[in-house]
Design brief:
By secondary structure, this protein is α/β, with parallel strands linked by helices. The chain is 62% helix and 10% strand. α5 runs antiparallel to α10 and α7 packs across α10. The longest helix has 54 residues. It is elongated and about 120 Å long.
């Protein structure tokens, strides 16, 4: 939706907000509005009491009349104080509850959306929707309802007092109002537009700060502190500019009210003063009218603020509705199927699969089978489509055409939770949350006993470093696991996979970024985890796939060859070329030693190459020659 939201859309959004979030609080809202009515009427009563105070109490010199008027005026102030306190507490309560539910529902809805939604929208933008826009709506509703109940009633009560004294004086006081109607309409549109721009700029700041704080080491090592500082400075300056414009336009609306007040008071003072001098009006009448009109412009000013604030709220509400208008395309089928057999015995099959991001093709008629209980490696250059295969298996994306199946059942026919429950994933960058290690391993899983947890910790070699942490398993992992080393993060991720105990294991360069010592420990953990499971491995270093049961060679989205390491070398082709090229450009130390001895494996060689341990498949560790 644009910033200039049509009135029909505004009504629809307000109806949606009321039915979904505010109607549940109608009783406290009704009580708050009654208290606002009391506060509004108190202002009218106060201005009305000015007339008897001057014309009866002061002019007569009667002490009892003075006390009587004083008691009533004091009572009005007391009622106003309690009413104001009560409705403010109630409105803050309702506003914050509404904001909290909006935020919770938005996050819940976002979690159902496709991964592409999060590629198209930056984290800062989404955080601004959840936090900034929801809070803005909660705050403005406090102001809007206060204006509808308190300020409108105050306005009517004060105008009633003024009209009871002299309707012609009222006409003189508000004579300038129609002249400013058009410019106020223009200002309201500007408020809506500049508020939209301001929220967008705030989202950019959030995104930039998120990138800086999570990439602080890279920034320091590359010496780009000044560059990042200048980028943040530009973002903050842009936000300050748009926010200033928004506030200036809202302030201009309030200033318009003051201009009306200035013209009106000038006219009343001149016209009313002449009447008092002529004896046709009393001082009490003039003071009561003057007080009423002076107080009238306070609720008018508040209503002017509401006008600007309402436009800002509509802008926020529009963006929130845009979030809820997004629908996931990857859903569980209406009539889900079940796996024909046991998941541990299910082959994974891709048949003529095509996939594209936008207009960019990623997979082209890709076909291969990963047999149950065996290890299948995917190799190829970056961008060949290896990670996309993982995404299609887990339905983070759906193929455009072709068939992706597990055990004979297409992945699109299985319930999403059941499908994703078949997989454990360990990737190069183990994602840890800013929680305790225990929470990161459990990932919300209940009912895990100490024996099961100990087995996971021992299997993943997490138990090796836990005693060195101050709070043991309850030690905080830090933002994105920053309190742990790379190897420790990987071991925590493996412990998570052990607890998950899924039949299919997906490894995406799980140890390629680790040092030798950490690599060895993680390799051992992965060896244990992979036993008896269907394992798919993404590998960029070909030294990691020598012992795989099958190697699938991919190039520009196509499966160009597949077989064992020996078979692929015998046939020549892309795998053999990459194999030799990689070692010539700097393979492992053992590879270079073999090359110096004249043992490079060219496609035409018939000599059987050495065999290597399964451990090397998973991470590219040191090769161990057998026999």
């Amino acid at each position: 939706m644009s910033a200039d939201t049509p009135r029909t859309d505004q009504k629809e959004m307000i109806r949606w907000l009321w039915k979904g979030y505010m109607r549940a609080y109608r009783l406290p809202l009704a009580l708050a509005m009654l208290l606002m009515l009391a506060e509004g009427l108190a202002l009218g009563g106060l201005s009305y009491m000015i007339r008897p105070m001057f014309d009866v109490a002061f002019s007569s010199g009667n002490t009892s009349s003075i006390i009587w008027v004083a008691v009533i005026v004091a009572g009005i102030f007391i009622v106003r104080a309690f009413a104001a306190f009560g409705h403010r507490v109630l409105m803050v309560h309702v506003g914050q509850r509404v904001a909290a539910k909006l935020q919770t529902d938005m996050v819940a809805h976002m979690l159902t959306l496709d991964s592409s939604y999060f590629r198209d929208n930056s984290p800062g933008t989404l955080m601004e929707r959840v936090r900034g826009d929801a809070q803005a709506i909660a705050t403005i509703w406090e102001v809007v309802l206060a204006a509808v109940a308190r300020d409108v009633v105050s306005l009517l009560a004060l105008l009633g007092v003024a009209l009871s004294i002299d309707w012609l004086w009222v006409v003189v006081a508000v004579a300038a109002a129609p002249v400013l109607t058009y410019p106020m309409g223009i200002l309201q549109k500007r408020v809506r537009r500049t508020t939209t721009d301001s929220r967008g700029a705030a989202a950019q700041i959030s995104t930039r700060l998120d990138e800086i704080f999570h990439g602080i080491n890279s920034i320091k090592l590359s010496g780009t502190e000044r560059h990042e500082q200048s980028r943040v400075d530009r973002e903050i300056s842009a936000f300050a500019k748009t926010h200033l414009q928004s506030q200036a336009n809202q302030g201009a609306i309030v200033a318009m009210v003051d201009i009306i007040a200035a013209v009106g008071f000038f006219g009343v003072l001149v016209y009313g003063g002449l009447q008092i001098n002529a004896g046709t009006k009393t001082v009490g009448e003039f003071m009561s009218f003057f007080t009423a009109m002076a107080l009238v412009f306070d609720p008018l000013r508040n209503l002017g603020k509401v006008s600007g604030g309402w436009q800002a709220a509509i802008a926020s509400l529009t963006r929130i509705r845009d979030v809820f208008a997004q629908s996931p395309t990857i859903l569980s089928p209406a009539k889900p199927a079940a796996l024909p057999g046991k998941a541990a015995q299910a082959d994974i099959v891709l048949k003529d699969v095509n996939f594209a991001y936008g207009d960019t093709p990623i997979l082209r008629d890709a076909s291969f089978t990963a047999e149950a209980g065996k290890t299948t490696a995917l190799v190829g250059a970056s961008g060949a489509g290896k990670s996309t295969v993982f995404n299609l298996l887990t339905r983070l994306a759906d193929a455009k055409s072709g068939e992706v199946s597990i055990g004979g059942a297409e992945v699109t026919s299985l319930p999403l939770d059941q499908l994703r429950g078949l997989f454990s994933v360990v990737s190069q960058e183990a994602l840890l949350f800013d929680e305790s290690l225990r929470d990161n391993i459990l990932m919300g899983r209940d009912g895990v006993d100490e024996a099961t947890m100990k087995h996971a910790l021992d299997t993943a070699h997490v138990a090796d470093f836990i005693p060195r942490l101050e709070s043991g398993l309850d030690s905080p992992a830090g933002p994105r696991g920053s309190n742990l080393s790379g190897g420790q993060r990987q071991r925590v991720a493996i412990a998570r996979a052990v607890l998950r105990d899924a039949p299919v294991l997906l490894l995406d360069e799980a140890t390629s970024a680790l040092d030798t010592k950490s690599e060895k420990l993680v390799q051992e953990a992965l060896d244990t985890l992979a036993k008896g499971r269907t394992t798919l491995v993404i590998a960029h270093r070909l030294s990691t796939v020598r012992d795989a049961d099958k190697i699938v060679v991919m190039d520009q989205g196509r499966v160009v060859d597949q077989g064992t390491h020996d078979e692929l070398l015998e046939r020549g082709g892309l795998y053999a070329q990459l194999y030799n090229l990689q070692f010539q450009d700097g393979g492992d130390a053992s590879d270079k030693t073999s090359m110096r001895k004249g043992k490079t494996y060219l496609p035409t060689e018939t000599k059987e190459p050495p065999r290597w341990s399964f451990r090397g498949i998973l991470s590219g560790g040191l090769w161990r020659k057998r026999g």
